[in-house]
Amino acid sequence: MDQQVDNPNRGRRLRIGIALVVFLAICLGAGGLGAIATTPEIDGWYRTLEKPAWNPPGRVFGPVWTALFVLMAIAGWLVWQKERSGPRSAALNLFGLQLTLNVAWSWIFFALHEPGWAVIEIVGLWAAILATLILFLRQSRLAGALLLPYLAWVTFAAGLNFEIWRLNAASGV
Fold it and tell me: In 10 A of CB 31, how many CB atoms?
């Protein structure tokens, strides 16, 4: 009679752990999709653009975005753990939308060489992040707070995108 008692929480903990890995994979995967568009253009087209003096060095972007994608994943995972409801679903759907817009920005700016269109797109991305943050706050204060650095960085990135577009508009970029 040496039977092991199955712990009902073990399955739940495993499911929650797997969900975290899935959220990390999705968010870091989104970053990877953006990098596919971005990386080949850094030493080529992007280097030719005029940039403001406050443009960060290139080595800053990778670590910052990696950290932001990890924070996004944890935030999404925290909301996912909440009881299923309409507001939870809306928050997670908006999370997916903003992640899609995040990837799209890289392709518009870098792959298509369209900084002007990217300015318009990043405004939509910013609004989607803000809306996601608000809905996440209603589900989990921590989840909402984890999106604050992302909103701050995209605010900065929007200003940088606008300034790059402005500085290069006369040259047809």
Answer: 21
